[in-house]
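Quick one:
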Amino acid sequence: MISGEKIGKNFLDEYIFRYAESKVLEKQVNPALTIDEYRLFNNMLSSMPMAFNLFGLIRKFLEDKNMRAYKIIKTVFPEFTWIDQVV
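Output:
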């Protein structure tokens, strides 16, 4: 059986998978990070991969200067009328 940390089965795309990998590596120098590597890569029902999939995609949009990040935030939080940009 192939492990999730090798094939990224818990992630929507390659970018999010690579970002998750980078955060696991970061935990080696910052033990305060609360990443459980097994849950992240192998348990789709865990909130951890869900958070990476949601916010990792928004992060990619921000890196690409894509307006979809702003549109997602405005759609999810329409009552936050004071949001005029997402950076």
